[in-house]
Amino acid sequence: MTLCQTKTLTDSQKNRILSLVSQCCAYDAVSLSYPVSPKENASHFLLYSQKKGQPNLVSALALVPMDDSAMECIAFTHPDWRRRHYFSRLLSSALKSCHDQDLFFPVSGSSPDTAAALEALGAELAYQEHRMEIILPSSSQSVIPAFHAAHWNADSSCPPAFPRLKPPHSLYASPACWTLFLPDHPNHKAGSLLTSPIGSDHLCLHQVEILPDLKNQGYGTIMICCLLDYLAKTPIRKVSLQVSGENIPAMALYKKTGFQIAETLSYYLY
Predict the structure, then answer these.
(1) Does the structure show a pLDDT above 70 at 109?
(2) Quick check: 153 pLDDT over 60?
(3) How many CB atoms lie within 10 A of CB 148?
(4) Are residues 161 and 243 in the same domain?
(5) Cys staple from 42: which of 60, 62, 143, 236, with CB 3.0 to 4.6 Å?
(6) Contact by Cβ (8 Å): 227, 165
């Protein structure tokens, strides 16, 4: 076995990792990604076996900084090579670069192998995050809830007495900023949100904010409804977001505007 530690992945390493991740996710029936992009500033620990002279990636582990005190640890081991302590070997090497930082392991679904590994480590559930999404209808349909319909005219544009959502110059900017303005006050900002493209028909929603003195007045609901109605008339067909399971008000807001939980990530603290 050969252990490789690197901050910069080659194209060959990326392809091997993505192939490993694909095989693991299919075997465990889960959905979990690996940070191959250099923007994520990950440290990578790769374990290879030699098979007929060719290196075979059997396990990969990445450490991704969360803040100064914590790291996210993402690891995959090929199903045929599990329960041979290869993950433990990678983790032992990774811990040498952690400087007493907490490690959080994200877990998707319920893999028996993952559960056994976490139990052996003594890792405990710390918190959960939910990935929520909404599939947009065709442009001929409105996504505005019935209780807001009276505020909209026939072509679904905002009348003067209704808050106005100013769209970005480009839907595919990363990030793109949307701003909500109060009715009858075209320069009075009520809130904002950001979107980032995931694909040609998929946006990620994040940093939804309403000004403190305007909270609990329905502006969050209005802003997201305006966003979804606008996007329904574009090529965008899906909007997704991530929210902490502990953020009950945000969860309620997103469910109210049509988002549904698509996946839950459980974070275990080591």
Answers:
(1) yes
(2) no
(3) 16
(4) yes
(5) 62
(6) yes
Q: Evaluate whether 165 touches 223 at the Cβ level (below 8 Å).
A: yes
The domain of 57 spans: 2-122
Neighbours of 151 (CB within 10 A): 15
Query: What's the pLDDT tens digit per position in 31-85?
Result: 788 998 888 889 999 999 876 666 789 999 999 998 888 999 999 999 999 888 8
Cα–Cα dist 10/140, whole Å: 46
Helix, coil or strand: residue 73: strand
- E strand map for the chain: 2-6, 43-51, 54-67, 70-77, 102-108, 124-135, 164-166, 176-181, 189-199, 202-210, 238-244, 260-269
pTM above 0.85, yes or no: no
Residue whose pair of structure tokens reads 């693991």 in the numeric block: 24
Together in a domain, 167 and 95:
no
Task: Using the 3D structure, point to which of 67, 94, 122 is the last residue of a domain.
Answer: 122
- Say whether the peptide bond before residue 175 is cis (omega within 30 degrees of 0): yes
Calculated CA dihedral for residues 217, 221, 226, 229, nearest 10 degrees = -150
Q: Which two tokens stand for residue 133?
A: 């999404």
Look up residue 17 and give its DSSP letter.
H
Residue 270 forms part of a structural domain: no
